[in-house]
């Protein structure tokens, strides 16, 4: 019996904006106050991790995403609030598939 090849993934919808983790991280950290000496280093780390995800982290994708989430958590906690809604929304958006109704 011949094996059937799986259907190729659908082409991205040209009407949807290109998704970029780095762009989303830049937007997230843009207005955060610099409350610690490590702020600049943490922002640089977050951007580096985001860029790695955009470029394709291969087998390390899950580890890089966890480290990015952890870094963003530290940065947003420095803000002084207990409100994690912005971070949770951002992290949730990372796992939203292309063509998902919430992106329309």
Write structural notes for this entry.
This protein is an all-alpha fold and 104 residues long. It has a domain at 38-96. Helices cover 51% and strands 0% of the residues. It contains four helices and no strands. The protein has helices spanning 21-29, 39-55, 61-77, 85-94. Helix 1 (21-29) packs antiparallel against helix 2 and helix 2 packs antiparallel against helix 3. The radius of gyration is 17 Å and the shape is globular.
Task: Give a brief rundown of this model.
With 104 residues, the protein is mainly alpha-helical. 51% of the residues lie in helices and 0% in strands. It has a domain at 38-96.
Index terms:
4 helices, globular
Question: What form results from the Cα inertia axes?
Answer: globular
**Extended strand count:** 0
Helix and strand sequence: HHHH
Secondary structure: helix percent: 40-55%
Q: How large is the share of residues in beta strands?
A: under 5%
Unreliable segments (pLDDT under 50, ≥5 consecutive)?
none
Between the first and last Cα atoms, what is the distance in angstroms? 41 Å
Major β-sheet annotation: none
Q: DSSP helix count?
A: 4
Mean pLDDT: 76
Secondary-structure class = mainly alpha
Q: Which oligomeric form is depicted?
A: single chain
Q: C-alpha Rg, in Å?
A: 17 Å
């Amino acid at each position: 019996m011949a094996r059937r090849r799986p259907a190729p993934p659908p082409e991205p919808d040209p009407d949807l904006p290109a998704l970029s983790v780095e762009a989303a991280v830049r937007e997230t950290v843009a207005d955060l106050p610099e409350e610690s000496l490590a702020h600049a280093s943490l922002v640089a780390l977050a951007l580096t991790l985001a860029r790695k995800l955009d470029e394709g982290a291969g087998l390390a994708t899950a580890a890089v995403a966890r480290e990015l989430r952890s870094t963003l958590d530290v940065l947003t906690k420095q803000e002084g609030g207990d409100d994690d809604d912005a971070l949770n929304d951002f992290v949730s958006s990372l796992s939203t598939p292309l063509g998902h109704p919430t992106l329309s």
